[in-house]
């Protein structure tokens, strides 16, 4: 389904990003991995596991690092803006640094990567897929920074889709619910129970279930879908 496509996935050393890389590789894509230097060992291991892959170290919140990475990449068909962090705290206790760090990586990273790769994406009539969150749609206690960043991604996605549609470029977002990742491990057990109770499918999702939707959006099977936000949340948002 993805044969002959080159896909760049940010934050792909672990969790959802890793699952996306493995899924897209299994469908024939050439994979370009990205993460920060601290994750290089994980990237090396994943590259070996995939085979048809390469990796670049760059902090997506740093435009100069992103531009340096992009200068070394000859062609991209699909970009998956997955890199993200959380620094949860109520607004009353949140520091300016905690606010800026989350915004700079989660939202600024999507801006930096999308801007730097846009000419390659336009050249190939490709697509951009942004990983948002249902928190960006509904908000969540103790996550004003995270929610703002993810809501910003949705606005960016819809606006960019309008800008680049005339070049046959598609821009979409997915909004995961609670997924079994390291980020979710930090959630208190009583909150996990409450979330599962509110989720129609009564469980957390798996990274592979996010990856399957990304693979669909990356493929030509979704050729008339752009500006969409697809919830992959087990029914939590309904």
- Fraction of residues in β-strands: 5-15%
N/C terminus separation:
31 Å
Order of strands, main sheet, comes to 3-2-1-4-5-6-7
- The arrangement of helices and strands along the chain is EHEHEHEHEHHEHHHE
Q: Low-confidence parts, pLDDT < 50 over ≥5 residues?
A: none
- Identify the CATH architecture: 3-Layer(aba) Sandwich
Q: In percent, how helical is the residue content?
A: 40-55%
What is the CATH class designation? Alpha Beta
Reported for the largest beta sheet, the result is:
7 strands, parallel
CATH third-tier fold name = Rossmann fold
How many independent structural domains? 1
The total strand number stands at 7
Query: What is the residue-averaged pLDDT?
Result: 96
What's the tally of helices?
Answer: 9
**CATH superfamily placement:** NAD(P)-binding Rossmann-like Domain
Question: Helix/strand/pairing class, anyone?
Answer: alpha/beta
* Shape call: globular
This entry's quaternary arrangement is single chain
Question: How would you describe what is shown here?
Answer:
The chain is of the alpha/beta class and 238 residues long. It has one domain (6-230): Rossmann fold, CATH 3.40.50. It contains 9 helices and 7 strands; from the N terminus they run E-H-E-H-E-H-E-H-E-H-H-E-H-H-H-E. It has helices at 15-26, 40-50, 63-71, 96-124, 135-138, 144-164, 182-185, 189-198, 207-218; strands spanning 6-9, 30-35, 53-57, 78-81, 127-131, 170-176, 229-232. The protein has a 7-stranded parallel sheet, with helices on both faces. Strand 1, helix 1 (15-26) and strand 2 (30-35) form a beta-alpha-beta unit. Helix 3 (63-71) packs parallel to helix 4 and helix 4 runs parallel beside helix 6. The two termini are 31 Å apart. The model has no long low-confidence stretch (mean pLDDT 96).
């Amino acid at each position: 389904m993805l044969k002959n496509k080159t896909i760049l996935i940010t934050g792909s050393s672990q969790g959802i990003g890793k699952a996306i890389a493995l899924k897209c590789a299994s469908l024939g894509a050439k994979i370009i991995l990205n993460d920060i230097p601290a994750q290089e060992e994980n990237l090396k291991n994943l590259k070996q596991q995939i085979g048809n892959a390469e990796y670049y170290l760059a902090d997506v919140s740093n435009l100069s690092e992103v531009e340096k990475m992009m200068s070394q990449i000859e062609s991209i068909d699909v970009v998956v803006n997955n890199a993200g962090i959380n620094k949860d705290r109520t607004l009353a206790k949140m520091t300016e640094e905690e606010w800026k760090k989350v915004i700079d990586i989660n939202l600024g990273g999507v801006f930096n990567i999308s801007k730097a790769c846009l000419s390659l994406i336009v050249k190939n009539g490709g697509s951009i897929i942004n990983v948002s969150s249902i928190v960006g749609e509904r908000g969540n206690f103790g996550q004003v920074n995270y929610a703002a960043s993810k809501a910003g991604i949705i606005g960016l996605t819809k606006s960019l889709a309008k800008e680049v549609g005339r070049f046959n470029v598609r821009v979409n977002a997915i909004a995961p619910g609670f997924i079994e990742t390291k980020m979710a491990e930090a959630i208190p057990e009583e909150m996990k129970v409450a979330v599962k109770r509110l989720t129609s499918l009564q469980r957390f999702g798996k990274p592979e279930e996010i990856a399957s939707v990304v693979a669909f959006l990356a493929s030509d099977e979704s050729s008339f879908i752009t500006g969409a936000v697809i919830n992959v949340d087990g029914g939590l948002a309904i």
